[in-house]
TrEMBL record:
SUPFAM superfamilies: Nucleic acid-binding proteins. It comes from Halococcus morrhuae DSM 1307. Belongs to the eIF-1A family. This is Translation initiation factor 1A. InterPro entries: NA-bd_OB-fold, RNA-binding_domain_S1_IF1, TIF_eIF-1A, TIF_eIF-1A_CS. Residues 6-80 form the S1-like domain. SMART domains: eIF1a. Keywords: Initiation factor, Protein biosynthesis. It comes from the Archaea.
Amino acid sequence: MSDGGSQTGLRMPEEDELFAVVTGMLGANRIEVRCMDGTDRTARIPGRMQKRVWIREDDVVLVSPWDWQDEKADVEWRYDKADADRLREEGHVQD
């Protein structure tokens, strides 16, 4: 296994984004996530993802924490099962 080239085609976090695991569904386009920095946040599913991307508990997502309110975030991306398994194998996401 190579030490960095294995992420080809996989969307990785930019500087203001974090990996997170969905821990609960709150309704009203909001979910509860556990971010990889150890913080639990309430994340908002943006309109561009609603009805197009189905998010469920235990999905791996990419979130962007709010600058002015650290306990909240916006969902930027949802990984499919194969990509999420790969992120777990590579150690980027811990359950």
